[in-house]
Design brief:
Two copies of one chain form a homodimer.
Chain A (H helix, E strand, L loop, with lengths): L1 E5 H12 L13 E7 L2 E7 L3 E7 L8 E4 L1 E6 H10 L4 E8 L2 E6 L2 E6 L16 E6 H11 L14 E7 L2 E7 L3 E8 L6 E6 H8 L9 E6 L3 E6 L2 E6 L18 E6 H11 L9 E6 L4 E7 L3 E7 L2 E4 L2 E6 H11 L3 E6 L6 E5 L2 E8 L7
Helix pairs in contact in A: 1-2, 5-6
Chain lengths: 373, 373
């Protein structure tokens, strides 16, 4: 293999592929990026057990790719990105000179790096699965930002560590829950397909920094029961899916309410955030006492002390005394994003839901906690 | 105690005092900040075993300090800074309401915090020691930036973990060394005093973010054999000194040289930085082969591979083949700051020195390492 290519273009492609590379993998070849040059152009591949990324570069004016000799090499990802990032020239040259020994050069600097045999690299199937639909990158980013946070960081049921995507009748329903709170987003999609899959949260986070970097781009999403692929210009991002059936969550979301609060979203976030240093067993639990005359937010711990804040908000319904995790309500409010929020309650030990008053397409549900204040 | 004060002014004073507070101290009162209000104004005190900071605030138009009742309280530093930072009002009120229970209020929020008995706080002597001189804050910042990095991170001789300050005949000589490299800065000072003290590196770093925040300010430095005080408007920063006599380092610095190299400083930093990913036993050792015709920088490791770069520089003297720690030479070059640097050598296993070609007031010395390339 012998190529020359624009340093900046190769650098940004490698940064994307590195999101699938595990630099601490016990298998040296999984710490590597495979570079393949053939008649089609340059292909960069990186993979860990869960995510695989393939970057395809055809020659164009900006990447200035020139394939002098076709071939393939596998280079440690950290070494490769370090060399390409720091080489001080517009164009760099990569040439396999002896077995896996590879020469990188640009301007006055030259590196000879011990590569690995590219045939040791796993044979990853990047073929496109049959079920397919498209979404704007900006919409996919919103979906991720509004759901991933509510998934379980780890759980005895691994399926809860992911985000569930269900398509039926042209409606995509995206759900995450850690059993104590739930986030549910619905989006109309122009597709007659039907599926129900759960994507690992980590894959969705990596997706944001790779395929979704241009919010205006259209993303093609293809899937079967084992994997999902996110495809954009030149890049294929593939993730395995989580096994196990996702719990049926619709019955958990109350449909009727007897109390309602309207409040400025940032006022509520700031009021809760102000008192979260008051913690008991490393948890900040806030208590909300509401009547139609006054709404008071309190927090207390035996050790540190207590806080009390009168909120400026509208409340309708019977008096209510309810306690919740400060973190859960702050994260739910952040996900919503509208200026005001509506919180609807059914009872002191019943889940409550937070929404944009003008839009029910995103529902944030939080379970109260019992306190003995 | 009962006071009101500007939130922003109290906040920035507390941030400064926190640099002396160890939030993980096993002694609860050392995790605290003592607040004392008396006829003179407000005094904030924080301390760990090594550093103590006292902040004095008299009433003025910008802090709007109002002492309604004199007194004193001791509050956990993290809790105190968190409350003051997040209270959402221009003026905040602090009132001791019952024993050590202290009320903080501002706008709609109110906190009642369990304080500690201020008489449990250690009695710190902030009286000014007799030996005294002044320096501009900007000069003190340069001294710190140009020396601290070369002190030992830890050492069997604790005195090497500090920076030595010696004043004699109106010349302040500041020296740091970890036995493998040395940094020496000389500054003229308008003082007839004589002293030789060693200040812990950590104290100098904290000093930068507290007393030295205004580069134009004049700093008074007062010391005796046990402590040094750095005094600026309203703030006293006190540090203990390191015991033990600092090694005599002047004889280590060669006075005569037989080879000299002149090079663009950033070119050398970048050339070394480019190859430091090539490491053996987590150390990047660079080899410099110089003749009057060509200067070549190389690095190699059995595992990763090798690098080679021709430097554009002027070299005079006999051929030289010398190896050194990449990190040491990069840090020395960064400390110097001039556009070009002069490197003077006496032999392949002898220390070499790096300076600004126009200014010998800062000398960076590096010991070569033996390699078997």
């Amino acid at each position: 293999m012998n190529i020359t290519i624009s340093k900046n273009e190769l650098n940004s492609s490698l940064q994307a592929v590195m999101h699938a590379v595990s630099s601490t993998s016990p298998q040296p070849y999984l710490r590597g990026i495979r570079i393949t040059a053939d008649g089609e152009g340059l292909v960069l591949t990186g993979s860990n057990a869960d995510i695989s990324i393939q970057m395809n570069m055809q020659r164009n004016d900006s990447n200035d790719l020139n394939i002098i000799e076709e071939g393939s090499i596998l280079i440690d990802g950290k070494v490769l990105t370090e060399i390409v990032r720091k080489l001080d020239s517009e164009t760099i040259s990569i040439e396999v000179i002896d077995g896996a020994l590879t020469k990188f050069s640009g301007h006055s600097a030259l590196f000879r790096i011990n590569g690995m045999n590219p045939s040791d690299y796993p044979d990853i199937d990047f073929s496109k699965p049959p079920v397919s639909f498209t979404l704007k990158a900006a919409d996919m980013i919103s979906i991720i930002d509004q759901t991933v946070f509510a998934a379980a960081p780890k759980d005895t049921r691994p399926v809860l560590t992911g985000v569930n995507f269900k398509l039926e009748g042209g409606v995509l329903t995206v759900t995450s829950t850690d059993s104590f709170r739930l986030s549910k987003k619905t989006v109309s999609v122009d597709s007659a397909e039907t599926f129900n899959i759960t994507i690992p949260s980590r894959s969705l986070n990596e997706l944001k920094s790779t395929v979704l970097t241009d919010p205006e781009a259209m993303i093609e999403i293809s899937l079967n029961s084992r994997k999902a692929e996110f495809i954009s210009a030149g890049i294929i991002f593939q993730t395995k899916l989580l096994d196990g059936s996702y719990p049926e969550t619709d019955r958990l979301i109350p449909k009727e309410f007897n109390r309602e609060m309207m409040i400025d979203r940032m006022d509520l976030i700031r009021a809760i955030d102000r008192n979260t240093f008051i913690r008991t067993e490393n948890q900040a639990i806030n208590r909300l006492q509401c009547s139609e005359n006054e709404i008071v937010l309190t927090n207390r711990s035996q050790e540190i002390g207590d806080s009390q804040e009168v909120l400026s908000a509208d409340f309708t319904g019977e008096e209510l005394d309810i306690s919740f995790s400060a973190q859960y309500v702050i994260e739910a409010c952040r996900a919503i994003g509208s200026e005001n929020i509506k919180i609807r309650f059914t009872g002191e030990m019943k889940p409550f839901i937070i929404t944009d008053p003008a839009d029910d397409s995103l529902i944030e549900l939080v379970l109260p906690v019992r306190t003995y204040n």
